[in-house]
Amino acid sequence: MFVDSHCHLNDPLLRPQLADIRAAMQAAQVDRALCICTTLEEFPEVHELALTHDNFWASVGVHPETEDMAEPAVDELIRLARLPRVVAVGETGLDYYQMDERKGGRTVAQMDWQRERFRNHIRAARAAQRPLVIHTRSASADTLAILRDEGEDGGPASAGGVFHCFTETLEVARAALELGYYISFSGILTFKKAQELREVAAFVPLDRMLIETDSPYLAPVPMRGKVNNPSYVPYVAQQIAQVRGVEVGLIAEATSRNFERLFLAGQAA
User: Fold this and answer.
1) Burial class, 100, CB count within 10 angstroms (exposed 0-12 / middle 13-18 / buried 19+)
2) Which tens digit of pLDDT belongs to each residue from 92-115?
3) What is the pTM of this model?
């Protein structure tokens, strides 16, 4: 059985098709999924998915690129993270991608609001004893520096978590692993130009690896161009199996076990 460790099933492209998606998941042997929150405004919808379906769980957090929405306070994140079936804080992190095109020409120095928001999520995760779901894009140096500054060193007091939809270098992967974090691979791993990322997938230890769709985005080959959904996550596992020279069942077993260890250990069902 496979687990999709990061999807957005409340998205308007997916929510109306939920019954069909669940049937497709069952047919593809995808038995569980983590539904990811990106704004406080959408949290009730994300949480409802987890409360309604016994093989879904939820996170709570505000995406680093989200503006003009409710800003998350530490106390509010802690309160929501402790609700039933909420097993992670995020997605959170830093995004410096296309500062001109996507961020109005602001400089990295002007992104203090992202860095402060990230720190708030880290502090909430530690207090609530929930792992972090980290988004980092063109910002890996600052992401790692803030984690270290906040005491995320893999020790007993660390929140820990996962670098989701990993697209960074082998050096960044190595640093994340040294801090005790997991690495999650998405459909990007199957793209033709992703050879360097496939080399990262060959390097990451099996006991520190997750798979995801990030659906409705980033459908893997051979489904590229379609709306992504959790039933496609086996294609990611198949690509990892290929680059590592192992059976796909080994990847399914390892990533499912890692999902349980990171998100479900010690949590109520």
Assistant:
1) exposed
2) 999 987 555 665 667 767 778 899
3) 0.96
